Amino acid sequence: MVLISHPYVPVHLPSCLYLPAVPVILPVIMGDLLILPPSRHHHHETAGLAVQGHPLWEPAPAGIDVEPPAGENMSIVVSSLTIATQMALSHFIRGRLSEMVEGELLKGCLLELVAAAEMCGTCFELIIIADNYGVYAYGVYLFLMTIWWGQSWGTATACPYNLLEEYVETGSNPVHVVLKIVAQVIGGIASFRWVKRLWMLEVAATHVGRGVDDCTADLQVPVIVGFFIEALLTCACRLFSRVLGEFEPKFASAIDSFFATSMVILAFDYSGGYFNPVLATGLKWSCRGHTNAEHIVVYWAGSILGAMLSLRVWTIPSLKNTILAPFKPKLE
Fold it and tell me: 17-68: per-residue pLDDT in tens?
C-alpha cells in the first residue's frame, strides 16, 4: 500500500491486506444451506470455497435445491461503503488540518498519521473482500484505492522508506523523518480500534466473527525467503515508479498503480506482499506464525533495504541507462 517525493509512487498495500485470523468455525446449517462463517485468516481458509465457485457457501446435501445467500450481495455493498466512507472522511480531515495547522512539522506528522490510519483501516476491510470474493476482486479494489491515495494524500506517504529516500536524496531533517515515521506507526496501529467496533455491529454477513483481537501471520515461507520477496519486489516497484517519473507518460499514476497491484498479487500467497512496514505492522504485529523479530526482518528490513537498493541502482549511471533503455523511443 508508498507515495511521496517521487511523482508516481504507489502506496503498496498491501498486499495482503489481511486481517487478524480466528480459528475456522464449524459449518452451521441454516435453512437449506450449509454456510461456512467467514474466517479472519485470508485466502488459505477460503481458497477451497472459491474453487467451488462461491466464496461464502458450500453445496447443501444432495437432493436439496439452494440459492446463494441473499446477504452476500449486500455484503460487498457494505464493504464498499465502509472503504469509501473512511476515504472520504480522511480526505475531509486532511483538508481541515491543512487549513488550520500552521506549523509545518506538526502538520506533516498529523497528515502522515491520518494517511496511515486510512490506509490500514481500509485495508482491513479490503481483506474481507479478498477472503470472500477472491484475489481478483481484491486487486481491482486495491488498484482503484492506490490511484485515489495518489491524488488525495498530497505530501503524505504513510510509508517509512519514502521518508528515508527523501532524507538520502535531499538531506531532510532526520528528526522530522523519525517523528513522521512514529506518527505513521501510531496511525496504522490505531486504525483497528474503529474497524473492530464497526465489525462488532455485524452489519454484513462477512463481518460476523471478525471483531476479535486474535490474528495469524501471512508469512507462508521461511523468514529469509519472505525477506527477499519483500525486498526485491519493493525494489522493483520503486524502480518502476522512477522510470515513470522520468518519462511522465499519460496515465502514469494508473500504470504505476497497476504494476504495484500486480506485484502485490504476485506475493499474495508467500509473504502477503505488503511492501510497506507501517501497513504490515498495523495489520499483523504480534500475530501467531512469526515472532516480532521475524516481523521486523521481513517487513521492515526487507522493504526498507529494497527501497534503498533501488535508490542505489538509480544513482549508478550505467544501471540507470540500462533500465531506461527499453522505454526510450528508438531513433530512425
Answer: 333 333 333 333 333 333 333 333 443 333 333 333 333 334 444 444 434 4
What pLDDT does residue 125 have?
Answer: 94
3-state secondary structure of 211: coil
d(CA 288, CA 291): 8
Angstrom distance (rounded) from CA 177 to CA 174: 5
Give the closest residue to 161 by CA, choosing from 6, 323, 265: 6
Q: 272 vs 13, 17, 40, 275, CA distance in Å?
A: 9, 7, 14, 9
What cell numbers appear for 161 in the block? 522508506
204 neighbors 83 (Cβ within 8 angstroms) = no
Count of C-beta atoms within a 10 Å radius of residue 251? 11
- Cα–Cα dist 48/55, whole Å: 8
Q: What is the DSSP letter of 205?
A: G
Nearest to 227 by CA among 309, 299, 304: 299
Query: Are the C-beta atoms of 327 and 252 separated by less than 8 Å?
Result: no
How many Å is the maximal CA-CA distance in the chain?
71
The residue whose grid cell reads 513522521 is: 180
Nearest to residue 119, comparing CAs of 192, 177, 182?
192
Place of cell 506485484: 263
Pick the closest to residue 11 from 205, 179, 211, 263 (CA basis). 263
Set of cell numbers at residue 76: 460487498
| SS3 (DSSP) at 59 | coil
pLDDT band at 328 (very low <50, low <70, confident <90, very high): confident
Say how many CA atoms lie within 13 Å of 234 toward its Cβ: 38
Which residues are CB-neighbours of 57 under 8 A, at least 6 positions away?
33, 34, 35, 36, 49, 66, 68, 69, 72
CB-based contact 30:308 (threshold 8 Å): no
